[in-house]
Amino acid sequence: MILQSLNELYSRLAADPDYEIAPPGFSPQKIGFRIVIKVDGTLFDIQDARTPDENGKMQNIVMLVPGESKPSGSGLNPCTLWDNSAYLLGYKKPDKDPQKAEKEAARALETFAECTKHHLAIEREINDPHFSAVCRFMEQWDPVRITEFPIVNDLGTGFGIFQIQGEKKPVHESAAVQDWWMRSQSTGVPGDIAQCLLTGEILPIARLHPKIKSVTGAQSSGASLVSFNASAYESYGKSQSYNAPVSETSAFCYGTALNSLLAGPKSSKHRIRIGDTTTVFWTEKPSIVEDCFADIFAGGSQATEEVQDETKRGQLQRILEAIRSGGKYQELGESGETQFHILGLAPNAARISIRFYHGSKVDDLLAKLHDHHRCLEIVRQFTEQTGSRFPDPEFPALWQIIRETARAADEIPPLLGGALARAIIEGTPYPEGLFSAIIRRIHADRTINYLRAATLKAVLTRNHKLDIPIMLDTENTDPAYLLGRLFAALEKTQEDALGNVNAGIRDRFYSAASSTPASVFPRLLRTYQHHLSKLNGGAKVNRERMVQEIVASVDASGFPNQFALKKQGIFAIGYYHQRKDFFTKKETAPTSEPVTETV
Hints:
4 domains; four-stranded antiparallel sheet; 15 strands; elongated
């Protein structure tokens, strides 16, 4: 299903010039210089092909060239009509170490000789005068002459191409070369032809699948999504990727499409990182959700503030409103039947692991996001209405939730991000490790903020089917919830009586109070009486009334000896609700006393 979807996506991306998708057998490469030769093969000039960017810095240009990528390995692997300066000119910029520079210079001469041999071997097949001019150049070129063209030392890592003097197109774009290259791409031989798993057609099967690049943590040269490197994984006498028969064309298409999502010119709207998982997503046809999903998942509520484009900001607001209200995608002016795909990839040595994959209709996706929002919904600690400069996000981004599970980013469990993303997209239970990680962080730093309370509520609501209130519920009789409220009331009384202290009761007793209440609360209530005596008038009466009501609602058997992990989460939510209520402005009831007129 994954490869089929990517194979189908290739046709759509190839038809859109913004994606700069290469046709089968070609690839976009960074070109830094061009070797301009005359029709007789003599050198005219070596020119800089780079162009300045908006800051004036010279950048390589991207050009489609024959071949999917520069062949890897320590052997001699020349490309056709493009390559680095060592292969095309027999020259490599000298290293500062004399011994290394001498070794690399000898290697450059070997690669140039191999490149010359490669081009001469196919000259008769191509039968093109421009290609023959390149062959004549290679036969007569002396690498010693490179000192006449010092610009080569300033070109960096870009590849080079050939161009005939007076011609607008490079040699590799000539019709004869292109036709020959397309004919040479089919490597199928009798015995390598079978039914393609993706299309069902009988075609030459790819021996090796394409390398997938730009997966965070994987090899920079690319890693395999499909590969067989040991006989234990093979069957029916098949070797290598013949065990997963995919035609050469389909393998190219799915690999090109996936690489475009990961590192193409439009990759920013198709790719986000969740923990150690590189996540890509797409729809079967262009859509608002495809354009905005990265911003919503990676930015949450802040996405509308960070996006500069007014049109896109409006689209984000409409999607967030649809998620908030549970509306249909059709309300956004597009079909909700459009298929949405999301794929999570993680590094695994020279291969890529699939962390998760999900395909669904866009309407189903919005419904899952709405349910996730409903599970997370809890009264916010800081809002725009309170004048906060940094209000809590109504729609927390995925990274904001995961960040609350560890002290530092490198301490976040590597599998947690992918598991959470999968739960959100598929509507399945949240990972229990998320709940326990939040509880551990609360015990470590005694901080119960909006994101932590919302995450605990979400897990309890979806995984344990509990009805957790959004804001303070004075009718809730759950002992854990009541004791969380009580702890918040005792802490607030201490603050009102003594002001800020170096180590308040939350710093000293929260962990014990939430896990073993019977060992802590009797002592806290005795201390509370001392703090209460320092309060004035109405504040003292109101606080005492609240505390007595909460204590009276606790089970008659007394304070529980121990709270399990789930109850500790409910304790934290009760504490959060009560603290928020303390700092929420209460509406004053209108007076019913008659107004007396003065004569």
